[in-house]
């Protein structure tokens, strides 16, 4: 689901209406919106994201109990292996085959044709930045898996960035219930969305 599609516009509008209409359910509402946004590309990629981010979540929590360096590198390794497998495996195999002039895997091999998971680069580097910040004690490990997933997979920046740091975004998520509607912020948000759509349109025709 791209930002310039009617489906995204519908998801955004419905989410915004419910966000201000039912303040007490905001965390769950945004979690559902994130899942719907991500599930468009396939449930298996949503499950993959849940597993990888869940492992990093647990690693960050375990740092409080000792073996900080082990859990740091375990979380980083899981994140990078996921990224490398989907983004660079085909390139690595083809490079080896060209260099040695022989075939390692058949061109029809199914796992070499897997689609790239949505936002994999962004969420990989967010997970790494988060676990490093916890290791350096710049941020406390999040205790709620819903708040953690909200931080990592927020659909507003999932495929276009920026890469958020826990110290920037997690405090905002914890204050969701007390945020009030402000017309000035709404106008600015609509302006920025419109500006982004114009830039996207111009980049396609120039």
From TrEMBL:
Species in which this protein is naturally found: Paenibacillus hexagrammi
Taxonomic path: Bacteria, Bacillati, Bacillota, Bacilli, Bacillales
Keyword list, A-Z: Membrane, Transmembrane, Transmembrane helix
Domain of life: Bacteria
Full protein name: Uncharacterized protein
Transmembrane segments: 7-23, 35-58, 70-91, 111-132, 144-164, 184-202
């Amino acid at each position: 689901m791209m930002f310039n599609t009617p489906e995204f516009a519908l998801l955004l509008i419905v989410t915004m209406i419910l966000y201000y209409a039912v303040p007490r359910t905001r965390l769950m509402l945004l979690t559902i919106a994130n899942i719907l946004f991500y599930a468009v590309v396939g449930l298996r990629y949503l499950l993959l994201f849940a597993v990888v981010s869940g492992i990093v979540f647990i690693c960050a929590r375990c740092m409080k109990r000792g073996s900080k360096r082990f859990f740091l590198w375990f979380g980083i390794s899981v994140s990078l292996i996921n990224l490398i497998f989907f983004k660079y495996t085909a390139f690595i195999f083809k490079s080896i085959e060209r260099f040695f002039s022989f075939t390692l895997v058949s061109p029809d091999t199914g796992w070499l044709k897997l689609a790239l998971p949505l936002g994999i680069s962004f969420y990989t580097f967010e997970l790494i930045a988060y676990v490093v910040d916890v290791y350096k004690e710049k941020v406390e490990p999040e205790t709620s898996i819903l708040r953690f997933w909200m931080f990592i997979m927020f659909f507003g920046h999932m495929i276009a960035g920026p890469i958020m740091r826990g110290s920037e975004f997690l405090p905002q998520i914890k204050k969701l219930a007390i945020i009030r509607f402000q017309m000035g912020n709404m106008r600015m948000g609509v302006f920025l969305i419109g500006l982004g759509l114009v830039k996207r349109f111009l980049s396609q025709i120039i």
